[in-house]
Amino acid sequence: MSKIEVNQIDTISGSSTLLIGPSAATKLTFSSTLTVDFNVNSPGVTLSGTMKNQGFFEAYPSSDTNIPSGAWTKVTLNSETYDIDGWFDSSTNYRYTPQSAGKYLFYWCYNFAGSGTTYQIIMDIYKNGSSSRRCFSGEGMSNANPSNSGSTVLEANGSSDYFEWYIYHNKGSDQQFNSAVKLVRFGGYRLIGA
Fold first, then answer.
1. What is this structure's pTM?
2. Pairwise CA distance, residues 124 & 136, whole Å
3. 25 within domain boundaries
């Protein structure tokens, strides 16, 4: 192996592209003691493929929402905190259809404005219209204004897979989601490199 020692490598006049190694090279290896500083002169770094951050969204109901007893009900998420790629439908179907394939972390939290009668609360993320991840958020809830949160990971094909948030309770009467200060929200994002 030969060695070249220089202070600076630059492009020739009139060119803005610098190629290191042959055009067929697929890997550039740095010494384990080398620090690569991307802050110098604030250069832009473009990531693509599995390392590109895509798909972050968070949605919530714009007003208090009644949830019927004894039936699975899709949560009407008609407002958005974030939707960086525009993949969440907050006007018609209240569903997330990511257009980048990969594994997604979904999270949710809720707060009921209900009384202290004992009942059960179950959350579910539906994938393509069917139950996919069910979570017993409240088993025999007896406290006033029950609340909970959780998360899970699901895979999307990046074209047609869609995700919706459903809730079930068996209190015997309608319960109302408390939308104050966004206490009810559903969100997610693609896991980089997964």
1. 0.73
2. 9
3. no
